[in-house]
Amino acid sequence: MALNAKKAVAYVAAGAFSAAGVGFAVSHEYSKRIRRSAAPAEPELVLPDDVVHRSLPVRDGGEVHLVELGEGPAVVLLHGANLSAEVWSYQLRDLCGKHRVIALDLRGHGRSVAGAEDVTISAMAEDVAELLVALDLDDALVAGHSMGGMVCLRLLRRHPEMLGGEIGAVALISTSAGLGLPVPSWGRLAGAVSLVAGASVGIWRPGRAMPTGDAGYLASRIGFGKKARPAEVAATLAMLRAVEPEVFGKLVAEVLSFEESAPFDTAALPVAVAVGTSDHLTPPLYARKMAAGFEAAVLSEYPGAGHMLMYERRAEIGALFAALSERAGEAQAPGSKSTLTAPVVLASAKVSTASRHRSKA
């Protein structure tokens, strides 16, 4: 196996098994040292008091909860696996002055309830499609983090008719178009890992998908880069612990088996891809490959940042979303090209434009 493939296998294994709770093997003393440096709780890590809560029914009997704040061009935020709308608390505050910011609890998370289609990425994509219509949105920026980015990709694949209508721009944050690798028996490996995750979530604490104490803290710390803020790690852990174990196990299988790596025909759509260089769950190699699947996408790599960019790079992600929102809908005529081809943020990020080059017939 080539060196790059070996590295990719290592990254996937690290991400999958950290999700399954292998944080038990990490040093107890290291955890205590981190926790001794903990800062006071950060009040902005919880939802603003003035958000509007709404719950909307969806086609299969489920119900999707969302929070929104502000007026103006719409920014729709989709969280990652085992998190909730609360992970976007910074962005709700930072963007609400000029935008209508809408953060969803994806089905099976937060206050949302899954219907007959259960907790799958495809069902989540259909939920988002329904909500974009129900909320009467036009040229919205749809941004997804981690699994939420996968939901974005599935939405684009299934509903291209929404491009230039409900959807005006897309941001893919710390995510991948597919974690599968060209190695034998990948499908069986993914299935085995999901079984391990499903069986192990009840070991640590009945009814909870994350361990207590040091192991739980360190399992959350894995998602951060070199300079994690203890309050943000603790906020992440609180969301992870709120997820039902059954949902946790199902989502491991969903994420590991996800595949949307075929090129997207979105020439007129502004697309941004963002990743931290110290992201060990969806590392930069996945972001680069995903960005190349679009006709033109801006790829931003943040030195030293990990998987939780909405926390670790608050200002830069806010600026990225604002810039994308300004460009949403400005190049939607048939045959036109996206104008998002120049760096849009960003003193602290390495920015490039990834383009897909098609061979001529």
Report the C-alpha radius of gyration, rounded. 19 Å
| Overall form | globular
Count of separate structural domains: 1
Q: Supply the CATH architecture.
A: 3-Layer(aba) Sandwich
Sketch the topology as an H/E string, one letter per element: HHEEEHEHEHEHHHHEHEHHE
Q: How confident is the prediction overall: mean pLDDT?
A: 80
Sheet with the most strands: spatial strand order = 1-2-4-3-5-6-7-8-9
Number of helices: 12
Number of strands: 9
Amount of beta strand = 15-25%
Say which CATH homologous superfamily is assigned: Alpha/Beta hydrolase fold, catalytic domain
Largest sheet: 9 strands, mixed
Query: Structural class, from helix and strand content?
Result: alpha/beta
**Portion in helices:** 25-40%
CATH topology: Rossmann fold
- Runs in which pLDDT lies below 50 for 5 or more consecutive residues are 8-39, 182-210, 332-347, 357-361
- What's the CATH first level? Alpha Beta
Layout of secondary structure:
Elements: H1 3-19, H2 28-36, E1 52-57, E2 63-69, E3 74-78, H3 89-95, E4 100-105, H4 121-134, E5 140-145, H5 147-158, E6 167-173, H6 186-204, H7 213-221, H8 230-241, H9 245-257, E7 271-276, H10 284-291, E8 296-302, H11 309-312, H12 314-327, E9 350-355
Parallel strand pairs: 3-4, 3-5, 5-6, 6-7, 7-8
Antiparallel strand pairs: 1-2, 2-4, 8-9
Helix pairs in contact: 3-12, 4-5, 6-9, 7-8
